[in-house]
Amino acid sequence: MEFTEKALVLKMGRFRETDIWLRLFCAGRGLVTAFAFGGSRSTKRFCGCLDQLVLATFRVGSNRRGTYKVLEEGTLLHAFPGLRSDPRKLGMVAHCLKFVEAVQVDTQGARPVFDLLLETLGTLEQSEVGAELLPLLFKAKLTFEQGLKPDLTLCVRCGRPAWDHEALDHAPAAASSCTGLGFSVERGGLVCVACGGQHMDPGAEPLSIGAARTLEWIGASRPADWPRLALAPEMRRQLGRVVDRFVAYHLGLRWEHGMYRKI
Ligand SMILES: [Zn+2]
Prior knowledge:
Layout: E1 3-15, E2 19-26, E3 30-36, E4 55-62, E5 69-78, H1 81-84, H2 87-102, H3 107-126, H4 134-148, E6 151-155, H5 166-170, E7 181-184, E8 189-192, H6 193-196, E9 205-206, H7 209-220, H8 233-251, E10 253-256, E11 259-262
Parallel strand pairs: 3-5, 6-8
Antiparallel strand pairs: 1-2, 1-4, 2-3, 4-5, 7-8, 7-9, 10-11
Helix pairs in contact: 2-3, 2-4, 3-4, 4-8, 7-8
Bound molecules: zinc ion.
């Protein structure tokens, strides 16, 4: 089946002498692997399109037996020069692209992920987002958009509002990890000490009320809002742990040795 669609190149590789394969994220159908035969020689059909981090409109067909996809033509839309010239930003982008490739987004879920990815790249190209923050924000937002957004306003065990713990949070004890709230991945949301005595869910990650609110903010934010966000190191660590466990639990993915592994 032939189609023409806007896509971002997540990965590019060469095989044989002049042939190229691309791992595309297509706006309306998600991940597609396609082959550009003679691609490295053909500047006319694929002008500037056969490279990682290129946004282009691709015409994709298939071989005669329909067993694999063939790139027929590409029209370059944007090559993100502001990201290519900045190794620090490129590192963050690489992380996001690997995540998108690892999450098995179905056709229906492709469009929101595609939009989120492009908005993220556009924001990062035009402004600064903390290097430690961007992958965290992107992973959290993408996971929430898969319909997995946790309830961050009430304790999932007793229904007590999270802000009941605000006084506790600002007490001197707040400096320690025990501030009265935790995030239970298994239960899918916040848990409080008020209903669990001193024994919070053993597996729950400590989460300050500020961190819970930040997570709520991330869920409602768009990438254009992200440059405004600054987080204290402890809050960033808390959120990092919660988001990583959330992603591992719901999407079965863990970041190991520079790549996402299915667990
Ligand atoms: Zn509770």
